[in-house]
Every structure is written in C-alpha cells, then in structure tokens.
Specification:
alpha/beta; Rossmann fold; 2 domains; six-stranded parallel β-sheet; 10 helices; globular; binds 2'-monophosphoadenosine-5'-diphosphate
Length: 279
C-alpha cells in the first residue's frame, strides 16, 4: 500500500518539501506520497490524531506547530526535547516519535565548509526559533564558545540560560560583536535581516573578520543576502539557507526510509522551485 507522508503548517502553500520529497520517493522507487496539509492551530490535535489513525508513516511540522506538537506525540528525541521544537515525526509501529532535524541539518550541511565544530569560536546573530535549534546543536557538538548577538539582548540571554550543553556563551552587543570579529571561526546569521523584500539590510559590518572564517545565512530568498555578498567580497567561504533546508529534509527522509538521499539532487530540486541557479 502507498505510504503517506505530509507536512503540517499554516501557511503551507509555499512549502518546498512536498516536491523535494516526492522527487526522492520516485528516484528511490518508494511507493509513497508526501502531501502539504494546511492545519490551523486549533486543529493540530485532531490532525495528529487523524494521521495516526490512518497510519501515516511520518510527517514534517512547520510554523506555527513546532512546539505545540510536543505534548501530542508518544516520544520525543532528547535533542528535540532540549530544543523544545519538533519538525519531523516518525510513525514507528503506531507510536509517533518526534525529532528535530533543523539543527542537525544545519550542522551536516556545514560539514563541506567546516568539518569539525569541536573547539570552535562561533558568533550567532539572532535568538528566534531557528537560532535555538542551531545553537543547541552546535553546543552539543562541542563548540568551545558561542556568542549571541540579537537586537533584543534579553532574548539572547534567555537562550543562553536555557542551554544545558557545556559551552561558553555571552550575549553580546553589535559593537562588541563587531569588535571581536577576529576571534570567530564561524558566523551564522539567523534573523530576518536581508530577507526579501528588505534585501539592502545587513546585521553587522564584517570589517576585521578573521581570514577563512565561514559565514552562513539561513535565508535563501535571496540566495545571496547582502551579508553573504559582503563576506564573499572579502574572500570568505559562505553558505546560504539552502543547505540547512535540504539537510533537515535529508535527515528526515533517512529516518523515514533508512536511505540517506542524494543531497545534490535535492539542492537542484529546491533551486528549481526557487527559480535560481546553484551557488
Ligand atoms: P521566531 O523564529 O521565534 O519566530 P522571529 O520573531 O521570527 O522569531 O525573529 C527571529 C529573529 O529575527 C529574532 O532574533 C529577531 O530579533 P528580536 O528577538 O529582537 O525580535 C530577529 N529580527 C527580526 N526582524 C529583525 C529586524 N528588523 N532587525 C533585527 N532583528 C530582527
């Protein structure tokens, strides 16, 4: 019987996951289909119950359900529990198990530019939901120091206080971040700054950044934000948000099927959906 997969969110029409996963199911000859499902906040519990009742094999969860789904599941993976957000659910013999593949997806996507996180000095810009997944995953992976610069400093401090993995972290101002750029091996931009239509905005100046520092932006619209453009002009290795998106999907696909899929193929699929070219 055809297996059923889905993504639950609101809005959901913009999701690139259905095309990406359906292409993989066809490529690997798996008899399955992945549906986008528009689920309102007040319908989430019913939707999860329904998916369980009809034996859906697994699903993704996106905005605004990543935290509120937790009490509706049978088991939560420890990292997802720590992050407080689930984006992937596996139906294992009738039990719904929740995982977070956003943070691990970011880390795996970064591997090409930075194979080792242990001992690294990192600056994260932002303190929202996506930041949390990345921050906790990098802390768990053994980063030495992760500073957080956020417009609202109190949110950065809250994030730091809530992390139980051993890492040195400070909530820093923009001035302090800019003044310490020569210390960082990796800088990750996780805010909405520079996202379409505000493509002229950037979170900070990269004057004084260490040569070889890897600069990431989790935005993929545009594919190259002003921040990444400036980093590239300085000759720094850069990565946009496509990798995090593709690798979170690849890890989910592996949890559902046992196959770690061809991420270059996934990247091409996503870029086609975005109407761009590989960068
Ligand atoms: P969440 O991911 O939890 O939904 P969000 O409200 O979408 O959070 O914001 C994500 C991040 O983008 C936050 O770090 C937010 O900064 P604040 O905590 O100060 O709100 C940041 N952000 C959004 N718009 C911004 C802007 N115009 N300038 C600076 N930071 C911004």
């Amino acid at each position: 019987m055809k297996k059923l997969f889905a993504v639950l969110g609101n809005p959901i029409g913009q999701s690139m996951s259905p095309q990406m996963h359906n292409d993989l199911f066809a490529y690997y000859n798996i008899d399955a289909h992945y549906h986008p499902l528009l689920v309102k906040v007040e319908s989430l519990a019913d939707a999860v119950k329904g998916l369980k009742a009809i034996g859906a094999s697994g699903f993704n969860v996106t905005v605004p359900h990543k935290s509120s789904i937790i009490p509706l599941l049978d088991e939560i993976d420890p990292l997802a529990r720590e992050i407080g957000a689930v984006n992937t659910v596996v139906n294992q013999d009738g039990k719904l198990i929740g995982y977070n593949t956003d943070g691990p997806g970011f880390l795996k996507g970064l591997n090409r530019l930075l194979p080792e996180i242990k001992g690294k000095n990192i600056l994260i810009i932002g303190a929202g939901g996506a930041t949390r997944a990345i921050y906790f995953t990098l802390a768990k992976a053994g980063a030495k120091n992760i500073d957080i610069y956020n417009r609202t400093a109190a949110r950065a401090q809250e994030l730091i206080n809530s992390c139980s993995f051993p890492v040195i972290s400070n909530a820093v101002s923009m001035e302090r971040a800019e003044g310490s750029l020569d210390q960082y091996d990796l800088i990750i931009q996780t805010t909405l700054i520079g996202m379409f239509p505000n493509t002229g905005e950037k979170p900070l100046d990269l004057e004084g950044v260490k040569s070889g520092c890897v600069v990431c932006d989790i935005i993929y619209n545009p594919l190259e934000t002003m921040f990444l453009h400036n980093a590239k002009k300085k000759g720094l290795p850069i990565q946009n948000g496509i990798d995090m998106f593709v690798f979170q999907g690849a890890i989910a696909f592996e949890k559902w099927t046992g196959i770690f899929p061809d991420t270059d193929r996934m990247k091409k699929n996503v870029l086609k959906q975005l109407g761009g070219t590989i960068c």
